[in-house]
Amino acid sequence: MPDAGRPSISVLLPCRDAAEFLPECIASIESQTRSGFEVLAVDDGSRDDTARLLDSWAQRDSRVKVLAGQSAGIVPALNLAAEHSRAPLLARMDADDVACPERFSRQVEWLQTHPELAACGTGVEFVSSGPLGTGTLRYQSWINALDSPASVQRDLYVECPIAHPTLMVRRSVLVGLGGYRDQGWPEDYDLILRLHVAGMTAANVPSVLHRWRVHPGRFSQRSPAYDAASFRACKVHFLRSEMLPPGRPVVVWGAGKVGKPFARELQRQGIAVAAFVDLDPRKLGQSIHRAPVLSPDQFASIERPFTLGAVGSPGARSEIRRALTGLGHSECRDFLMVA
Length: 339
Description:
- The protein is of the alpha/beta class.
- The protein has helices at about 20-30, 50-60, 75-85, 105-115, 135-145, 150-155, 170-175, 185-195, 220, 230-245, 260-270, 295-300, 315-325; strands spanning about 10-15, 35-45, 65-70, 90, 100, 115-125, 170, 200-215, 250-255, 275, 285-290, 290-295, 305-310, 335-339.
- The chain has an eight-stranded mixed beta sheet with strand order 3-2-1-4-7-6-8-5, sandwiched between helices. The chain has a six-stranded mixed beta sheet with strand order 11-12-10-9-13-14.
- The longest helix is centred in the last third of the chain and has 16 residues, at about 230-245.
- It is elongated.
- The model has no long low-confidence stretch (mean pLDDT about 95).
């Protein structure tokens, strides 16, 4: 069972009060069809039975190393695990999730056959003891459709296009980017956006290989670093530094519950909004955040705009893409979808 040589994969497994779901997580890692891995499990100040479960696992499997965190959160825990890793590939795993048996094998094969990729994720299936919400199911469908580097880049500013618990990244890439950072917004999205800014690409293996658990105690559902405002701050920070071309008016297409908060965040970070575009006749001619609301016909008269399609519905994003492409605008060069 244990490999004597250097492992090909280091699994980064932060744990905190994870005893309820940890046995199923451990079983899924033990069931991987690819065995050449090590596990760096960080017990980050657990108060339940997590430490005992991890120690028992390490005693029966020499591939498992248990590290003591400082109860400082997921970013220090991940960096601690990465510092102790020995493999050229780092795989993320959450202690409340389940990896399908072929996950590690398929991801290694994907990175071997696509050497241009810095990282990859997989498709996901959300699981819960109760009914899944509409937004969760919409996100599942969206991320499972991102099956190429081009689709990941296209929707990079809609949401994080790589499900973090499924991430497999080249160790040299993570080290070169300086590891994980705590910027007050999601550390996984921050990493993927830094990877993109550095000129690297990521993609998803086009298969559902991970069961992503939804439950009230999940860290991302409790921490303010994962709320909508933090995601917007993260997106605008990277848009400002990497995507928004100087000298071109920024237009927000969508003056609703997505577009208005996004425009506020743009202005908060020093980016002027030249105009909104909307189809609602009640909004046309009004001013929102000191910017006029225009119809699509009026928008066509703006010279060299850079447009941010800020709507929540995938169907509405498709309509905006069609409208802008019809006007001769090119995605990523002249417009982006955000949410």
